[in-house]
Amino acid sequence: MLALQILVDGFAISALYGLGAVGFTLIFGVSGVLNLSHGAIMVVAAVTAWATAGSLGFGRFGGAAAGVLAGFLLSYATYFLVVRPIQTSRAIPRDEKEIFVLTGTLLWGIMIQEAVAYLFSNTPKTVLPLVPGVVGLAGVRTPINEIVTFAISWVVIGLLWLLVNRTRRGKALLAAAMNPRGLTLLGFEMSAVHRTVWAIYGVLAGIAGVLLGAFLGVSSDNIGTLTASAFSIVVLGGLGSVSGSLIAAYVVGYLETVTAYLVAPSVRSVPVLLLLVLVVYLRPQGLLGRR
After folding, report:
1. Residue 123 region, left (φ>0) first, then alpha (ψ -120 to 50), else beta?
2. Which burial class, exposed, middle or buried, applies to 1 when counting CB atoms under 10 A from its CB (0-12, 13-18, 19+)?
3. How far, in Å, CA of 11 to CA of 14, rounded?
4. What is the pLDDT of residues 1-33, one digit of tens each?
5. Residues 204-221 pLDDT 10s
């Protein structure tokens, strides 16, 4: 029975991790940015969904929509207020801009964390599930919300695949990840491509944040952990590799779930960090990465 419970719970949380990591990977692959405010954007989306659904009376679906919108807007704010000013600054040497972007997004995430803690306290907030209730799966009582989380995560990932592989704008994102100079020669403006990818990322982070808030609950204290989990997944899968990130998401999701059930929830991230160190030492490019 415990094994089935781990299987079901791990499947849902892994799909959710995959959704969050895909956006993180997409940003790095197209614009070369490791966004260390990733966890903050997800938490703001979840807290917004919680607050609007309850205090403002938006209901489950209205609150979820407000949370996704908050993730989208905060993603754009991160790009225009933090990332782009650094990337276009003439005062910062070109070879130092990457570390400035890392530092800038890290500090931005800390500022958001403090703002959330000040406005809403650091007590955990649980978003209303889109579909309440419990069903039995092979004798295991499973919240319907877990099934919904898995389904929405993979539907969104599938829609992202269609967007990237079947539309002109999406193919431009792929080209930007492989050969940005060649894309520019074809007449595409890189700033427009970057705006597009940050918009997509914001929606993905917003959806992932809302689903996470309904699945586990979130607080401002979770921001660092969520960013670390996404970073671990992306490094394990290979920087810039969407397929690698999805595989790594299931490795991390099940490893955390097994640890939480068999050891203690408070140390669920420890085995993942040990695995990350091992992978970095033995295969620095990750599972499917090339760089």
Report:
1. beta
2. exposed
3. 5
4. 678 888 888 888 899 999 988 988 888 888 888
5. 999 999 999 998 889 998
